[in-house]
Specification:
Two copies of one chain form a homodimer. Chain A is of the alpha+beta class. Chain A contains eight helices and eleven strands. The two termini of chain A are 26 Å apart. Chain A binds a DNA duplex (30 and 30 nucleotides) through helix 7.
DNA sequence: CGAAGGCTTGAGACCGCTCAAGACCCGTGG
DNA sequence: CCACGGGTCTTGAGCGGTCTCAAGCCTTCG
């Protein structure tokens, strides 16, 4: 997930190495897939696609992080997911006639492998483990949405923030908010103000300390116990 | 989707005929899949699986409707999806070690085809169109969740109800709420009281009439225009 | 006819949102 | 090194949509 956070370096290597996409796949198959797919580099901030466009391609994220979000009025958005290396997306390409629902924007420089619909079909038949990868990646993303819906329906603002913090990878008792607070807030279904207040709340209760994007978790157990 | 609503009759036929699962698949492959899968009949109200159990099987819904929901305290639940004939579910089986997130309960008598994990893998390799079906079904469900999240984040209670009504299949200007109002409310992320009030609101504005589960849509255009 | 379950209606409280202003952070350029 | 400026985050005050709790109603079914 957050492993490739500063993959500034990784991108200079062959992207094949970085991606968990290829695990359990023969070298010849890898090479073939790389050859029929088109490798694209995406500068930070660029959009790979936008809501409403027709979906002609499927994508595999080789490195970097991409934000999927739904536009919600001028300057507003609802963040759906943060994608990381190995994730598959643009899945709507499998439903001819459909249109893209979300925007895809690079949060950092990204490497993406893209496949035309026709090539995708062929690749899945020829390399079953490729179809397998799509299925497992899609299933993971599906479970992610499920958990987001669960949290949004069942937990209060502060509980959602606590849960998010606990799910972040941490070194010692310290963790780092990997994206802009505004974006994280949106992913949690909160306004930036509410997110901020929830962090303050947790800090006031002595559970965490916040300075900028750095968060120290003083009491993971009590934090966890907030989630009931 | 709602085509098989009153498939009381369809179930008496060979379930193979009813399901859109098999489209584009040779008869021999169909037969083989039916033979390695186990056909299960589920009486109304029965649970196929429950949250927390380990996922050993993948499922294809042949007929009937199944409610996926997340338990939320005593007698409470958050409805995630209503599944119909042809839908694939139990996808977590593809992620060994994971546990089921939702409950699956039959809303009417159902026929389900279930596959052990191992057989599933084999089937996908041997019958690529079967893997294809899983991918497209999962993608459709994924888009469904996406749209639910979008609606829940961006629309008011009454707007969500209006949208739901417009999406129901209707004969003339009449439609029918296919499940208990309590369940539909939950799917829309509302309390039953709020759902009821929203319906009354729309009725008071002359846009619809409600009697029991029957809804007459007087002015679809104005109803649509509520969604901005 | 009675009971049970589902739905509706009402009154009140609360959580998170909105709007607005001020503080902070950080990269940039003088 | 410091001052500047844009964007991001925080803080405050007030509002409002939805939830909660509690009756009452309606339909269905035994």
């Amino acid at each position: 997930m957050a492993l490739a956070a500063d993959s500034q370096e990784a991108r200079t290597h062959d992207a094949r190495i970085a991606s968990p996409l290829w695990m359990g796949m023969a070298c010849t198959e890898q090479a073939w897939l790389m050859s029929i797919g088109q490798q694209v580099h995406l500068p930070r901030g660029d959009f790979l696609f936008r809501r409403g466009a027709s979906c002609t391609k499927g994508y595999v994220l080789l490195s970097g992080h991409i934000k999927l979000s739904i536009p919600a009025g001028p300057g507003q958005e609802k963040v759906i997911e943060f994608l990381g290396a190995g994730d598959v997306f643009g899945e709507s390409v499998l439903l001819p006639g459909h249109h893209l629902i979300a925007d895809a924007q690079a949060l950092e420089p990204c490497d993406v492998l893209s496949f035309e619909r026709h090539d995708l079909q062929a690749a899945m038949v020829r390399v079953p483990s490729f179809a397998q990868k799509w299925l497992t990646s899609l299933t993971k993303r599906f479970e992610g949405l499920l958990r987001d819906i669960e949290s949004a329906s069942l937990l209060s603002a502060t509980q959602r923030v606590a849960q998010y913090l606990l799910r972040q990878p941490r070194i010692g008792n310290q963790t780092k908010l990997p994206f802009h607070k505004r974006a994280i807030a949106s992913k949690l279904g909160l306004q930036p103000e509410t997110f901020s207040r929830s962090l303050q709340q947790l800090a006031a209760d002595g559970l965490i300390s916040v300075r900028g994007s750095r968060v120290v978790i003083h009491d993971p157990v009590r934090l966890q116990s907030l989630l009931v």
